[in-house]
Structure of Cell division control protein 45:
Amino acid sequence: MLVERGNYRHCYEIIRRDGYQTPILIYVSTSDVDALCAYRILKSMFQSDNVPFSVFPVSGSEELRKRGKEIPDDEQNRAIVLINCGGTEDVREMMDLKVNCRAYVLDSHRPLSLQNVSEENKDVYVIRDDSKEGDDYFPEMDTDSEEDDDDEKNEDEAESDFSSDDDDDEEETARRKQIKLDRQRERQSQREAQQPESPRTVALRRKKRQAERVEYWRRGSYYGRSAGLCAFDMAFDMKKEGLEKNLLLWLAIVSLTDQLAHQKVSQETYKQYCFQLMSQVSNQINGNMHQERALDDGTMVKVFEDRKISIEEELRFEMMRHWNLYDAMLHSPYVVTRLQTWKESGVHLLDSLLATCGLSLQEAKQKFSHMSPNMEKQMREKLKEHAGSHGGLHDLTYWSFTYHHGFKVKMSAMDVVYAATAILENYSRCDVEDDEDEKENEENINTENDMDIRGNSNNNRRKSVGGGGDEEDGTPESSAAAFWTASKVLSLSNWEETSNGLQRAMRVQRALIRQGGFALSNKGSIKTLGSLRYFSLTEHGSPADVDLFKHPLTLLRLALFLQDALRQVKKVLRPLIVVGPSMIDPNYFLVVGVTEKPQTDSIESGGNFFMQSYARAAEQVRAHTKHGSFEGSVVQVAKTDLPEFLESLSDIDAERVARQAYMRNY
């Protein structure tokens, strides 16, 4: 069942009410920073209301399925929150929901499972705020007319759930009663006017619905509004957006920036949400510009907040503040793909741009933090003026935000995304003992109400969320350790962890540009396979860097970079498959697929179709596959089955292209 924006407040009140009876169970994906931001927002809200809860980081559907089996069947009212997981699958079936358990899903992955969004499903509530998906966007499930009475009863029960026990005013209560009465009258009139249907009519209606469902899934996978933004909207409706000195607003900003960094949102949609956040930041600035405090002698002095968010026009040079300008430009996918710096001519073009801007190589290669404010301002103005005439760098800037923590720390939202992502990607290097300290000190999840999954007091609960034990790559324990470590980076509360994340991110960025450059400059590295392009990192990658691309996020970023570059240099656009090593099983390859066109705002234009293509290809050739993450574009394929799997995938894509051509002509 869908929960629209107007019901966010009531939804939170129901979750909170159930949480007072039995601790809330939160299952959060370890695959992206957006999920981490949404969790931190909900954590602050629950703590402000003294609601007990337990947190379980999960790395994939199989782990989530196992966690669902651990939920006790004690018939107690229990709220389950799923963050960036579960939305695309039937939650009732996957988690085997027990009696009186209700799941609340904040998931940006699309398409949503039709079972989850069905009005008849009173066990799963999908929290969403996406104007592009109207009520008629989701095809209807098959229903029988004799179930109408039960549906009416269930719907009335659901309506009663979404009413506040404490603060509902009389006008709101009367409005809901009138809506309920109107619905009952409408159903009654429909039953009176309904004529018995022939078997042929029923069969035709079922066939039409089946065709609608097929078309729904053919649109492919894409992304809706970030989970972090939805969680912040809920906090705003509950008047909790100012918790932790506006940290929740910062987390919402980082969640949106994470979608931009990984091309999960179009430039147009990013600007739309960014301008909405700007108004929130402006309100925060005006409300917290300064405060006055009295000294010992009674003198009133102005003191400024130690934490604040500012709006800034950022250059598309990743982590520029933490290395030098030259390296930041040389390792920016935006600059590299347009200047083609994997060629010597591209590097000369970059040098020429800097010279035109009046910057010597010595100045460009000095640490950015050593650059004077005046020089930085002039550099920005010159780059914006001359970049368009050098390789077509017309969109060199974008609007974003920076977070100031005292006088020492100033971080852009994009830098935080890169640092936190680098930690999430780097399972094996997360110190498990540090993770235990993190959960004791930083997270401190309602220590006096610390509960296990059954609601009993348990001082060792944190170990149950994957906080200790095995440091092997790809295990749930190590991914959870990385999750807890990355949470420190979001609020910039631990500069050592943030700095480590940035250093790791810069290392990965160098490897990404280096490997991408090798693939683009060496003829034959990127092969054409029917209607697809294919690049194998295990065959053509540098052995020194290959292990850095074991995580789906890292390999996906490489695939996106290569596809961006191919759009600049190739006349014919094709989908791209990139193959790398698997951190889950050495006998498998990690496979990611990206479409030929960049992310757009149009749902009708289609998303990433590889989720469906993977399933068909595996079925046709009986390939052994695993889905180690919640991303539809990622799959693990047995090494022995990969050649046949790719050949089948190419045939399936050729069918897709032919079908699209037919639809365009007719």
In short: The two ends are 36 Å apart (CA to CA).
